[in-house]
Amino acid sequence: MKITIEVPNSILHLAEQLRTQDNASTENPVFMVQEWRGIEGWAGVQAFLTSKAAHAYLVSNLHNLKRPNRADRQPRVYVEGGFRNFEREALRRFLMTLPPPSAAAFPCPRCGGTLRALLVDDGQTFQAEQCNSCRSRWWNDPPKGAETVPAGMETEVLGG
Asked: Do 80 and 27 form a contact (C-beta atoms < 8 A)?
């Protein structure tokens, strides 16, 4: 049976991250955000498919996690294996077969370097990655009009 669906670009971007990230020598990694809970030891707080998402959660929610005075017991991202977790393995294999997300490259409004941008779900708005020259990121400090590609700006399609 063949089913046709429209896959959101955010899922295509997730699939691209799964294909290109460092899996820490683990075939089916599960990136766990953990916190120290005294006598219990390390306890999982959240599980993620990608290292990038786990680290972003850790940064944005650090104020909600337990932080003992010892440096070796600060909240962390720990990689666990998903060996014989057939549901996770099947989902990960499926995601990795998806094509790369639609992307474009255009000049950075700050320095003129190359800014790679990903087309988000509405099909008209771009979310920028880091500029290769000045290292600025649009979502942290957006310049005026940066939420969409400026009118008349030529774009070079990079993928899918």
From this structure: no
pTM for this prediction: 0.60
Choose among 75, 47, 48, 38: nearest CA to 59: 75
Torsion of CA 120, 132, 110, 12, to 10 degrees: 0
List b or e across 120-133, with b for residues whose CB sees 16 or more CB atoms inside 10 angstroms. beeeeebbbbebee
Does the pLDDT value for residue 156 go beyond 50?
no
For the chain, helix, strand, coil in percent to 5 are 25, 25, 45
pLDDT higher than threshold 70 for residue 118: no
Place of tokens 């075939």: 27
Q: What angle do CA 84, 86, 88 make, to 5 degrees?
A: 105
Domain boundaries, the chain: 9-96, 103-159
SS3 14: helix
pLDDT tens-digit map of 35-62: 998 888 999 999 999 999 999 998 898 8
